[in-house]
Each structure stands twice: as C-alpha cells, then as structure tokens.
TrEMBL record:
<keyword id="KW-1133">Transmembrane helix</keyword>
<keyword id="KW-0812">Transmembrane</keyword>
<dbReference type="InterPro" id="IPR021215">
    <property type="entry name" value="DUF2752"/>
</dbReference>
<dbReference type="Pfam" id="PF10825">
    <property type="entry name" value="DUF2752"/>
</dbReference>
<feature type="transmembrane region" description="Helical">
    <location>
        <begin position="83"/>
        <end position="109"/>
    </location>
</feature>
<protein>
    <submittedName>
        <fullName>DUF2752 domain-containing protein</fullName>
    </submittedName>
</protein>
<keyword id="KW-0472">Membrane</keyword>
<feature type="transmembrane region" description="Helical">
    <location>
        <begin position="51"/>
        <end position="71"/>
    </location>
</feature>
Length: 117
C-alpha cells in the first residue's frame, strides 16, 4: 500500500475526469504546476497550469500591499479583494482548458509533459 501511495506521489494525482473522458478537466496540471513552481521552474509551472503562478503572484501582491498599508497606516495602499482578479482567474482556467483539449483532440499531442524534476 505504501508503494502505491509513493507511485501516486511520484506521478501526480490521477484525474478521474480525464480517466473517464480522455479529456483534461479545468484543473488538470494544477498539482504538477505547483510542484514545478515550488522547484523554481516558472515556465514548466505555466505550461502545466498558468493559474498556479497567477495565484502566487496575486497573493504575494495582496500580502505586500496589506503590509505596506499597515506600516504606512494608509489603507489606500491595500489592493483588497478585487473582483477583476477573480474574473481573470476564471478566464485563465477556461482558456487553459480549451487550448489544452484542442491540442489533445486536434493534434493528438499531450500538452502536459511528464514531470522530470
């Protein structure tokens, strides 16, 4: 059982949607993107799933703006929870999902390479 768990960790979490449909789900590649980002490989992270890097940048910017707002005691510096940022995230997920499945279906290519890290 431990060997099975180690295999899953090495290969990544399997996607039930992809397993049953043969297509990528909107979140496919997210785990691998996070792993690549944590290893410092920004381009590979973007290739796996651009939402992960986008989220990291948005969270870092929000935390930095909150810190500056508190230190300067000027709430104007705080970015806040902008609905626009959520709309961008949803757009990233949709475009990523459509493009990856188009590459898979139209060209028969796997846009999610195996992790080599």
């Amino acid at each position: 059982m431990l060997q099975d768990l180690l295999q899953i960790i090495r290969r990544g979490v399997p996607c039930p949607f992809q397993r049953f449909t043969g297509l990528y789900c909107p979140g496919c590649g997210g785990t691998r993107a996070l792993k690549a980002l944590l290893h410092g490989d920004l381009l590979l992270s973007l290739q796996y799933h651009p939402l992960v890097l986008y989220t990291a940048v948005v969270v870092a910017a929000e935390l930095l703006s909150l810190a500056v707002a508190r230190v300067t005691k000027n709430p104007r510096w705080y970015l806040g929870h902008e609905l626009f940022l959520v709309h961008v995230a949803v757009g990233i997920v949709i475009v990523n999902w459509v493009v990856k499945n188009a590459i898979l279906v139209l060209f028969g290519l796997n846009p999610l390479p195996l992790w080599h890290g």
